[in-house]
Design a protein that fits this description.
alpha/beta; 23 strands; about 40% helix; binds nicotinamide-adenine-dinucleotide
Protein backbone atom coordinates (compact mmCIF):
# COMPACT_ATOMS: atom_id res chain seq x y z
CA UNK A 1 0.00 0.00 0.00
CA UNK A 2 1.40 3.37 -1.00
CA UNK A 3 1.98 6.08 1.60
CA UNK A 4 0.86 9.46 0.34
CA UNK A 5 1.58 12.66 2.24
CA UNK A 6 -0.16 15.97 1.62
CA UNK A 7 1.76 18.26 3.98
CA UNK A 8 5.17 19.32 5.26
CA UNK A 9 6.29 19.43 8.89
CA UNK A 10 7.03 23.11 9.47
CA UNK A 11 6.80 25.19 12.66
CA UNK A 12 5.71 22.24 14.78
CA UNK A 13 2.72 21.28 12.62
CA UNK A 14 1.64 19.81 9.30
CA UNK A 15 1.21 22.56 6.72
CA UNK A 16 -0.08 22.61 3.15
CA UNK A 17 2.60 23.07 0.50
CA UNK A 18 2.74 26.25 -1.57
CA UNK A 19 2.31 24.42 -4.88
CA UNK A 20 0.48 21.30 -6.06
CA UNK A 21 3.66 19.69 -7.46
CA UNK A 22 4.33 16.15 -6.24
CA UNK A 23 7.10 13.52 -6.28
CA UNK A 24 6.68 9.74 -6.39
CA UNK A 25 8.87 7.39 -4.38
CA UNK A 26 9.70 4.09 -6.08
CA UNK A 27 10.62 0.76 -4.50
CA UNK A 28 14.13 -0.16 -5.72
CA UNK A 29 13.28 -3.86 -5.75
CA UNK A 30 9.78 -3.98 -7.25
CA UNK A 31 9.98 -0.70 -9.21
CA UNK A 32 6.47 0.08 -7.94
CA UNK A 33 5.40 3.44 -6.60
CA UNK A 34 5.28 3.13 -2.80
CA UNK A 35 4.41 6.66 -1.89
CA UNK A 36 4.24 10.26 -2.94
CA UNK A 37 4.90 13.56 -1.23
CA UNK A 38 4.55 17.22 -2.14
CA UNK A 39 7.55 18.59 -4.02
CA UNK A 40 8.89 21.54 -2.04
CA UNK A 41 9.25 24.97 -3.60
CA UNK A 42 11.15 28.12 -2.70
CA UNK A 43 8.05 29.46 -0.92
CA UNK A 44 8.00 26.36 1.33
CA UNK A 45 11.67 26.90 2.14
CA UNK A 46 10.92 30.56 2.98
CA UNK A 47 8.23 29.45 5.41
CA UNK A 48 10.44 26.78 7.02
CA UNK A 49 13.40 29.15 7.39
CA UNK A 50 11.15 31.82 8.94
CA UNK A 51 9.87 29.25 11.46
CA UNK A 52 13.40 28.11 12.28
CA UNK A 53 14.53 31.73 12.74
CA UNK A 54 11.64 32.49 15.08
CA UNK A 55 12.42 29.37 17.11
CA UNK A 56 16.07 30.35 17.28
CA UNK A 57 15.44 33.97 18.28
CA UNK A 58 12.24 34.02 20.30
CA UNK A 59 10.80 30.65 21.24
CA UNK A 60 11.45 28.51 24.32
CA UNK A 61 14.37 26.99 22.45
CA UNK A 62 16.16 30.36 22.40
CA UNK A 63 16.24 30.42 26.21
CA UNK A 64 16.71 26.66 26.68
CA UNK A 65 19.47 25.40 28.95
CA UNK A 66 21.86 22.62 27.88
CA UNK A 67 19.88 20.32 30.22
CA UNK A 68 16.61 21.22 28.40
CA UNK A 69 18.22 20.37 25.08
CA UNK A 70 19.61 17.11 26.42
CA UNK A 71 16.11 16.17 27.58
CA UNK A 72 14.64 17.11 24.18
CA UNK A 73 17.19 14.89 22.40
CA UNK A 74 16.35 12.01 24.73
CA UNK A 75 12.63 12.42 24.04
CA UNK A 76 13.41 12.45 20.33
CA UNK A 77 15.48 9.26 20.78
CA UNK A 78 12.50 7.54 22.46
CA UNK A 79 10.13 8.60 19.67
CA UNK A 80 12.58 7.49 16.95
CA UNK A 81 13.17 4.19 18.75
CA UNK A 82 9.43 3.45 18.63
CA UNK A 83 9.59 3.83 14.87
CA UNK A 84 12.87 1.92 14.49
CA UNK A 85 11.47 -1.09 12.65
CA UNK A 86 9.38 1.08 10.36
CA UNK A 87 12.33 3.34 9.60
CA UNK A 88 14.55 0.39 8.65
CA UNK A 89 11.91 -1.13 6.40
CA UNK A 90 11.02 2.17 4.75
CA UNK A 91 14.67 2.90 3.95
CA UNK A 92 15.24 -0.61 2.58
CA UNK A 93 12.21 -0.41 0.32
CA UNK A 94 13.22 3.00 -1.01
CA UNK A 95 16.93 2.58 -1.64
CA UNK A 96 17.42 -1.21 -1.54
CA UNK A 97 19.53 -1.26 1.63
CA UNK A 98 19.83 -4.84 2.98
CA UNK A 99 17.59 -4.97 6.06
CA UNK A 100 20.41 -6.16 8.36
CA UNK A 101 22.18 -2.89 7.55
CA UNK A 102 19.13 -0.63 7.88
CA UNK A 103 18.13 -2.23 11.21
CA UNK A 104 21.59 -1.41 12.48
CA UNK A 105 22.59 1.88 10.92
CA UNK A 106 19.25 3.53 10.13
CA UNK A 107 17.62 2.47 13.38
CA UNK A 108 19.66 1.27 16.39
CA UNK A 109 22.69 3.48 15.60
CA UNK A 110 20.58 6.64 15.18
CA UNK A 111 18.78 6.10 18.48
CA UNK A 112 22.17 5.61 20.15
CA UNK A 113 23.44 8.76 18.49
CA UNK A 114 20.52 10.86 19.76
CA UNK A 115 21.08 9.59 23.31
CA UNK A 116 24.82 10.22 22.96
CA UNK A 117 24.22 13.86 21.94
CA UNK A 118 21.53 14.14 24.61
CA UNK A 119 24.12 13.25 27.25
CA UNK A 120 26.73 15.59 25.75
CA UNK A 121 24.19 18.43 25.54
CA UNK A 122 23.27 18.08 29.20
CA UNK A 123 26.93 18.48 30.16
CA UNK A 124 27.78 21.40 27.88
CA UNK A 125 29.59 24.33 29.43
CA UNK A 126 28.49 27.41 27.47
CA UNK A 127 30.72 29.93 29.20
CA UNK A 128 34.20 29.85 30.65
CA UNK A 129 35.82 32.57 32.73
CA UNK A 130 39.44 32.82 31.65
CA UNK A 131 42.14 34.85 33.37
CA UNK A 132 44.15 36.87 30.87
CA UNK A 133 47.96 37.27 31.07
CA UNK A 134 47.13 40.93 30.33
CA UNK A 135 45.65 41.42 33.80
CA UNK A 136 41.91 41.13 33.31
CA UNK A 137 39.39 38.32 32.79
CA UNK A 138 37.59 37.20 29.64
CA UNK A 139 34.35 35.30 29.39
CA UNK A 140 34.70 32.86 26.51
CA UNK A 141 31.28 31.79 25.26
CA UNK A 142 30.24 29.09 22.82
CA UNK A 143 27.03 30.24 21.20
CA UNK A 144 24.88 28.30 18.72
CA UNK A 145 25.65 29.33 15.15
CA UNK A 146 21.95 29.84 14.32
CA UNK A 147 19.65 28.32 11.70
CA UNK A 148 21.17 25.33 9.91
CA UNK A 149 20.26 24.31 6.36
CA UNK A 150 20.89 20.54 6.22
CA UNK A 151 20.96 18.64 2.92
CA UNK A 152 21.14 14.85 2.92
CA UNK A 153 21.59 12.18 0.22
CA UNK A 154 19.70 8.95 -0.35
CA UNK A 155 22.19 6.33 0.75
CA UNK A 156 21.84 6.55 4.58
CA UNK A 157 19.01 9.08 4.80
CA UNK A 158 18.22 8.62 8.50
CA UNK A 159 21.74 8.30 9.90
CA UNK A 160 23.03 11.23 7.84
CA UNK A 161 20.13 13.40 9.08
CA UNK A 162 20.66 12.43 12.72
CA UNK A 163 24.43 13.00 12.42
CA UNK A 164 23.46 16.65 11.86
CA UNK A 165 20.38 16.90 14.12
CA UNK A 166 22.13 15.49 17.23
CA UNK A 167 25.01 17.98 17.47
CA UNK A 168 23.04 20.93 16.03
CA UNK A 169 20.29 20.59 18.65
CA UNK A 170 22.83 19.98 21.41
CA UNK A 171 24.44 23.29 20.45
CA UNK A 172 21.08 25.12 20.46
CA UNK A 173 20.62 25.56 16.70
CA UNK A 174 17.37 25.14 14.76
CA UNK A 175 17.18 23.44 11.37
CA UNK A 176 15.59 23.17 7.96
CA UNK A 177 16.30 19.74 6.49
CA UNK A 178 16.02 18.88 2.80
CA UNK A 179 15.91 15.13 2.20
CA UNK A 180 16.76 13.54 -1.13
CA UNK A 181 13.73 12.93 -3.40
CA UNK A 182 14.33 9.16 -3.65
CA UNK A 183 14.30 8.64 0.12
CA UNK A 184 11.80 11.03 1.53
CA UNK A 185 9.28 8.74 3.24
CA UNK A 186 11.63 8.12 6.19
CA UNK A 187 11.88 11.87 6.77
CA UNK A 188 8.13 11.89 7.52
CA UNK A 189 8.72 9.27 10.23
CA UNK A 190 11.42 11.49 11.73
CA UNK A 191 9.08 14.49 11.59
CA UNK A 192 6.37 12.47 13.37
CA UNK A 193 8.94 11.59 16.02
CA UNK A 194 9.86 15.28 16.40
CA UNK A 195 6.17 16.08 16.86
CA UNK A 196 5.71 13.32 19.45
CA UNK A 197 8.86 14.44 21.28
CA UNK A 198 7.29 17.88 21.65
CA UNK A 199 10.25 19.81 20.34
CA UNK A 200 9.32 23.49 20.38
CA UNK A 201 7.72 24.62 17.08
CA UNK A 202 10.26 25.55 14.42
CA UNK A 203 13.23 23.70 15.94
CA UNK A 204 13.13 21.02 13.21
CA UNK A 205 11.47 21.54 9.83
CA UNK A 206 11.55 19.30 6.75
CA UNK A 207 11.05 20.40 3.13
CA UNK A 208 11.60 17.62 0.56
CA UNK A 209 12.67 18.67 -2.92
CA UNK A 210 15.25 18.41 -5.66
CA UNK A 211 18.55 20.14 -6.12
CA UNK A 212 17.06 23.53 -7.08
CA UNK A 213 15.25 23.67 -3.76
CA UNK A 214 18.50 22.57 -2.07
CA UNK A 215 20.40 25.35 -3.84
CA UNK A 216 17.78 27.88 -2.72
CA UNK A 217 18.15 26.70 0.89
CA UNK A 218 21.96 26.94 0.73
CA UNK A 219 21.88 30.59 -0.36
CA UNK A 220 18.86 31.67 1.71
CA UNK A 221 19.59 34.85 3.70
CA UNK A 222 17.96 33.31 6.80
CA UNK A 223 20.45 30.42 6.97
CA UNK A 224 23.56 30.74 9.17
CA UNK A 225 25.30 27.43 8.40
CA UNK A 226 25.03 24.71 5.78
CA UNK A 227 25.59 21.03 6.60
CA UNK A 228 25.82 18.96 3.42
CA UNK A 229 26.33 15.29 2.68
CA UNK A 230 26.41 14.19 -0.93
CA UNK A 231 28.56 14.04 -4.02
CA UNK A 232 31.83 15.91 -4.42
CA UNK A 233 30.42 17.62 -7.53
CA UNK A 234 27.47 19.11 -5.61
CA UNK A 235 29.74 19.83 -2.63
CA UNK A 236 32.01 22.00 -4.78
CA UNK A 237 29.02 24.06 -6.00
CA UNK A 238 27.72 24.47 -2.44
CA UNK A 239 31.20 25.39 -1.14
CA UNK A 240 31.47 28.10 -3.83
CA UNK A 241 28.11 29.55 -2.86
CA UNK A 242 28.96 29.47 0.85
CA UNK A 243 32.36 31.00 0.10
CA UNK A 244 30.66 33.88 -1.67
CA UNK A 245 28.31 34.39 1.27
CA UNK A 246 31.03 33.77 3.91
CA UNK A 247 28.66 31.16 5.35
CA UNK A 248 30.08 28.31 7.45
CA UNK A 249 29.68 24.95 5.73
CA UNK A 250 30.51 21.33 6.48
CA UNK A 251 30.83 18.95 3.56
CA UNK A 252 30.77 15.15 3.75
CA UNK A 253 31.51 14.06 0.20
CA UNK A 254 32.66 11.09 -1.87
CA UNK A 255 35.42 8.57 -1.33
CA UNK A 256 37.59 5.92 -2.95
CA UNK A 257 39.13 4.31 0.09
CA UNK A 258 41.90 1.71 0.21
CA UNK A 259 41.62 -1.60 2.06
CA UNK A 260 45.27 -2.53 2.60
CA UNK A 261 45.85 -6.23 3.21
CA UNK A 262 49.27 -6.76 4.79
CA UNK A 263 51.23 -9.96 4.10
CA UNK A 264 50.41 -11.39 7.53
CA UNK A 265 46.65 -10.67 7.38
CA UNK A 266 44.19 -13.39 8.30
CA UNK A 267 42.34 -13.75 5.00
CA UNK A 268 39.22 -15.21 6.62
CA UNK A 269 38.84 -12.04 8.70
CA UNK A 270 39.26 -9.94 5.58
CA UNK A 271 36.73 -11.92 3.55
CA UNK A 272 34.14 -12.00 6.34
CA UNK A 273 34.26 -8.21 6.50
CA UNK A 274 33.77 -7.48 2.78
CA UNK A 275 30.02 -6.75 3.22
CA UNK A 276 30.70 -4.19 5.97
CA UNK A 277 34.07 -2.70 5.02
CA UNK A 278 33.97 -2.73 1.21
CA UNK A 279 30.40 -3.35 0.03
CA UNK A 280 28.22 -1.89 2.76
CA UNK A 281 24.74 -1.02 1.50
CA UNK A 282 25.55 -2.80 -1.79
CA UNK A 283 28.55 -0.52 -2.23
CA UNK A 284 26.50 2.65 -1.80
CA UNK A 285 28.54 3.91 1.15
CA UNK A 286 30.92 6.84 0.92
CA UNK A 287 33.67 5.24 3.03
CA UNK A 288 33.73 1.81 1.31
CA UNK A 289 37.18 0.29 0.83
CA UNK A 290 36.72 -0.33 -2.88
CA UNK A 291 40.43 -0.28 -3.76
CA UNK A 292 41.74 -3.53 -2.31
CA UNK A 293 45.55 -3.37 -2.03
CA UNK A 294 47.02 -6.88 -2.00
CA UNK A 295 50.71 -7.83 -1.53
CA UNK A 296 52.40 -9.30 -4.63
CA UNK A 297 53.44 -12.35 -2.54
CA UNK A 298 49.77 -13.31 -1.93
CA UNK A 299 48.14 -11.63 -4.92
CA UNK A 300 46.75 -14.71 -6.67
CA UNK A 301 45.47 -16.25 -3.43
CA UNK A 302 43.68 -13.00 -2.51
CA UNK A 303 42.17 -12.48 -5.98
CA UNK A 304 40.86 -16.06 -6.06
CA UNK A 305 39.42 -15.76 -2.55
CA UNK A 306 37.73 -12.41 -3.30
CA UNK A 307 36.25 -13.75 -6.55
CA UNK A 308 34.85 -16.85 -4.81
CA UNK A 309 33.52 -14.97 -1.78
CA UNK A 310 31.91 -12.10 -3.66
CA UNK A 311 30.35 -14.52 -6.19
CA UNK A 312 28.74 -16.36 -3.26
CA UNK A 313 26.94 -13.28 -1.87
CA UNK A 314 23.15 -13.57 -1.83
CA UNK A 315 21.77 -10.90 -4.14
CA UNK A 316 18.08 -10.19 -3.78
CA UNK A 317 15.21 -8.75 -1.81
CA UNK A 318 16.63 -6.24 0.69
CA UNK A 319 13.84 -7.10 3.16
CA UNK A 320 15.17 -10.67 3.41
CA UNK A 321 17.71 -11.04 6.23
CA UNK A 322 19.74 -13.45 4.07
CA UNK A 323 20.45 -10.74 1.48
CA UNK A 324 23.97 -9.35 1.33
CA UNK A 325 23.60 -7.20 -1.80
CA UNK A 326 20.34 -5.45 -2.69
CA UNK A 327 19.42 -3.35 -5.71
CA UNK A 328 20.90 0.05 -6.52
CA UNK A 329 18.82 3.00 -5.31
CA UNK A 330 17.64 4.14 -8.75
CA UNK A 331 17.61 3.09 -12.38
CA UNK A 332 19.90 5.99 -13.28
CA UNK A 333 22.35 4.94 -10.63
CA UNK A 334 22.25 1.27 -11.75
CA UNK A 335 23.09 2.42 -15.28
CA UNK A 336 25.94 4.55 -13.98
CA UNK A 337 27.42 1.59 -12.05
CA UNK A 338 27.05 -0.64 -15.11
CA UNK A 339 28.84 2.03 -17.14
CA UNK A 340 31.82 1.77 -14.79
CA UNK A 341 31.75 -2.04 -15.03
CA UNK A 342 31.84 -1.78 -18.84
CA UNK A 343 34.79 0.61 -18.56
CA UNK A 344 36.49 -1.77 -16.09
CA UNK A 345 36.32 -4.58 -18.63
CA UNK A 346 38.51 -2.50 -20.94
CA UNK A 347 40.95 -1.59 -18.15
CA UNK A 348 41.37 -4.73 -16.04
CA UNK A 349 40.54 -8.40 -15.64
CA UNK A 350 36.98 -9.25 -14.56
CA UNK A 351 37.04 -12.09 -12.00
CA UNK A 352 33.51 -11.94 -10.53
CA UNK A 353 30.12 -10.52 -11.49
CA UNK A 354 30.18 -8.10 -14.38
CA UNK A 355 26.82 -6.38 -14.85
CA UNK A 356 23.14 -6.65 -14.06
CA UNK A 357 21.67 -10.11 -13.47
CA UNK A 358 18.71 -11.32 -15.53
CA UNK A 359 16.05 -10.40 -12.92
CA UNK A 360 13.07 -8.84 -14.63
CA UNK A 361 12.51 -6.31 -11.85
CA UNK A 362 14.68 -4.30 -9.52
CA UNK A 363 17.78 -2.20 -10.15
CA UNK A 364 20.27 -4.97 -9.36
CA UNK A 365 23.97 -5.12 -10.19
CA UNK A 366 25.98 -8.28 -9.56
CA UNK A 367 28.73 -7.90 -6.96
CA UNK A 368 31.77 -7.46 -9.16
CA UNK A 369 35.54 -7.82 -8.72
CA UNK A 370 38.30 -6.68 -11.06
CA UNK A 371 41.89 -7.91 -10.73
CA UNK A 372 45.12 -6.58 -12.27
CA UNK A 373 43.83 -3.05 -11.83
CA UNK A 374 46.27 -0.15 -12.23
CA UNK A 375 45.68 2.53 -9.60
CA UNK A 376 45.52 5.05 -12.44
CA UNK A 377 42.54 3.23 -14.05
CA UNK A 378 39.20 5.03 -14.10
CA UNK A 379 37.62 2.30 -11.92
CA UNK A 380 40.36 2.83 -9.31
CA UNK A 381 40.19 6.63 -9.31
CA UNK A 382 36.49 7.47 -9.60
CA UNK A 383 33.80 6.76 -7.02
CA UNK A 384 31.52 4.05 -8.50
CA UNK A 385 29.17 3.85 -5.50
CA UNK A 386 28.17 0.26 -6.24
CA UNK A 387 29.26 -3.31 -5.44
CA UNK A 388 32.43 -3.09 -7.52
CA UNK A 389 35.92 -3.79 -6.13
CA UNK A 390 39.31 -3.27 -7.74
CA UNK A 391 42.23 -5.40 -6.52
CA UNK A 392 45.55 -3.62 -6.95
CA UNK A 393 48.96 -5.25 -6.46
CA UNK A 394 51.66 -3.67 -4.25
CA UNK A 395 55.31 -4.67 -3.71
CA UNK A 396 56.04 -3.49 -0.15
CA UNK A 397 54.54 -1.31 2.58
CA UNK A 398 55.95 1.93 1.16
CA UNK A 399 54.41 1.04 -2.17
CA UNK A 400 51.04 0.31 -0.47
CA UNK A 401 51.10 3.71 1.25
CA UNK A 402 52.00 5.45 -2.03
CA UNK A 403 49.13 3.75 -3.89
CA UNK A 404 46.62 4.32 -1.09
CA UNK A 405 47.47 8.03 -1.01
CA UNK A 406 47.41 8.39 -4.80
CA UNK A 407 43.74 9.39 -4.82
CA UNK A 408 41.74 12.57 -5.11
CA UNK A 409 39.79 11.40 -2.05
CA UNK A 410 40.61 10.79 1.63
CA UNK A 411 37.59 9.59 3.60
CA UNK A 412 37.90 6.01 4.90
CA UNK A 413 40.18 3.00 4.55
CA UNK A 414 41.34 -0.05 6.42
CA UNK A 415 44.50 -1.98 7.22
CA UNK A 416 44.44 -5.74 7.81
CA UNK A 417 47.10 -7.60 9.79
CA UNK A 418 47.34 -10.05 12.69
CA UNK A 419 49.64 -7.47 14.28
CA UNK A 420 47.35 -4.54 15.11
CA UNK A 421 50.24 -2.27 16.15
CA UNK A 422 51.92 -2.82 12.81
CA UNK A 423 48.62 -2.08 11.07
CA UNK A 424 48.06 1.08 13.17
CA UNK A 425 51.60 2.27 12.32
CA UNK A 426 50.79 2.00 8.63
CA UNK A 427 47.33 3.56 9.15
CA UNK A 428 49.00 6.71 10.53
CA UNK A 429 50.67 7.20 7.12
CA UNK A 430 47.40 7.10 5.15
CA UNK A 431 45.96 10.43 3.99
CA UNK A 432 42.41 10.00 5.19
CA UNK A 433 40.02 11.41 7.78
CA UNK A 434 39.22 7.96 9.17
CA UNK A 435 40.68 4.45 8.92
CA UNK A 436 39.91 1.08 10.49
CA UNK A 437 42.14 -1.74 11.68
CA UNK A 438 40.84 -5.22 10.77
CA UNK A 439 37.43 -3.76 9.99
CA UNK A 440 35.74 -0.45 9.36
CA UNK A 441 32.98 1.14 11.41
CA UNK A 442 32.47 4.85 12.15
CA UNK A 443 32.49 5.45 15.92
CA UNK A 444 29.86 7.91 17.19
CA UNK A 445 32.39 9.09 19.78
CA UNK A 446 35.12 9.94 17.23
CA UNK A 447 35.11 12.61 14.51
CA UNK A 448 34.15 11.30 11.07
CA UNK A 449 34.83 13.05 7.77
CA UNK A 450 37.20 13.45 4.89
CA UNK A 451 40.21 15.34 3.64
CA UNK A 452 41.06 16.37 0.05
CA UNK A 453 38.00 15.99 -2.24
CA UNK A 454 36.15 14.02 0.47
CA UNK A 455 35.09 17.13 2.29
CA UNK A 456 35.54 19.78 4.93
CA UNK A 457 34.75 19.55 8.64
CA UNK A 458 33.75 16.57 10.76
CA UNK A 459 30.57 14.94 11.99
CA UNK A 460 30.19 12.63 15.02
CA UNK A 461 32.11 12.84 18.26
CA UNK A 462 31.90 15.76 20.68
CA UNK A 463 33.88 17.70 18.06
CA UNK A 464 30.89 18.02 15.76
CA UNK A 465 28.98 20.08 18.35
CA UNK A 466 31.73 22.67 17.83
CA UNK A 467 30.82 22.97 14.16
CA UNK A 468 27.35 24.22 15.22
CA UNK A 469 28.79 26.78 17.66
CA UNK A 470 30.72 30.01 17.40
CA UNK A 471 32.90 31.70 19.99
CA UNK A 472 32.22 35.01 21.60
CA UNK A 473 34.77 36.65 23.92
CA UNK A 474 33.63 39.23 26.48
CA UNK A 475 36.60 41.18 27.85
CA UNK A 476 35.85 42.15 31.49
CA UNK A 477 38.08 45.20 31.61
CA UNK A 478 36.37 47.17 34.31
P1 LIG B 1 24.01 14.40 -4.62
O1 LIG B 1 25.15 15.31 -4.39
O2 LIG B 1 23.50 14.27 -5.99
O3 LIG B 1 22.76 14.85 -3.73
C1 LIG B 1 22.83 14.95 -2.33
C2 LIG B 1 21.76 15.90 -1.84
O4 LIG B 1 22.08 17.22 -2.27
C3 LIG B 1 20.37 15.63 -2.38
O5 LIG B 1 19.43 15.94 -1.38
C4 LIG B 1 20.26 16.60 -3.56
O6 LIG B 1 18.93 16.93 -3.86
C5 LIG B 1 21.04 17.79 -3.04
N1 LIG B 1 21.72 18.62 -4.04
C6 LIG B 1 22.32 18.22 -5.18
N2 LIG B 1 22.90 19.28 -5.79
C7 LIG B 1 22.69 20.35 -5.00
C8 LIG B 1 23.05 21.73 -5.08
N3 LIG B 1 23.74 22.23 -6.11
N4 LIG B 1 22.67 22.56 -4.08
C9 LIG B 1 21.98 22.07 -3.02
N5 LIG B 1 21.58 20.79 -2.90
C10 LIG B 1 21.94 19.95 -3.88
O7 LIG B 1 24.46 13.01 -3.99
P2 LIG B 1 23.64 11.64 -3.94
O8 LIG B 1 23.76 11.00 -5.27
O9 LIG B 1 22.30 11.85 -3.35
O10 LIG B 1 24.49 10.82 -2.85
C11 LIG B 1 25.61 10.07 -3.17
C12 LIG B 1 26.88 10.82 -2.84
O11 LIG B 1 26.91 11.17 -1.47
C13 LIG B 1 28.12 9.99 -3.07
O12 LIG B 1 29.09 10.73 -3.75
C14 LIG B 1 28.60 9.67 -1.67
O13 LIG B 1 29.96 9.39 -1.55
C15 LIG B 1 28.19 10.88 -0.92
N6 LIG B 1 28.08 10.57 0.51
C16 LIG B 1 29.03 11.03 1.38
C17 LIG B 1 28.98 10.71 2.71
C18 LIG B 1 30.01 11.22 3.70
O14 LIG B 1 29.73 11.21 4.88
N7 LIG B 1 31.16 11.66 3.27
C19 LIG B 1 27.96 9.91 3.19
C20 LIG B 1 27.03 9.43 2.28
C21 LIG B 1 27.10 9.78 0.94
Amino acid sequence: MATDHQTFFIDGGWVKPATSNRMDVINATTEEVIGSVPDGSNADIDRAVAAARRAFKEGPWASSTPADRGAALNRLADAVEKRGGQLAKTVSMQNGMPINVSEQLESAFVVGMLRYYGALAAGLQAEESRPSPMGFTSLVRREPVGVVGAIVPWNFPVALSIMKIGPALAAGCTMVIKPSPGTVLDSYLLAEAAEEAKLPPGVLNWVPGGREVGAYLVSHPGIDKVAFTGSTAAGRIIAQECGKLLRPVSLELGGKSAAIILEDADLNTVLAAIPSASMLNSGQACFSGTRVLAPASRYKEIVDAYAATVSSFTVGDPLDHATVVGPMASAIHRDRVNGYIAKGKTEAKLVAGGGSPAQSRGWFVQPTVFADVANSATIAQEEIFGPVLSIIKYENEDDAVRIANDSEYGLGGSVWSVDRERAAKLARRIESGTIGINGYMPDMNAPFGGIKASGLGRELGPESIGSYQQYKSIYMLG
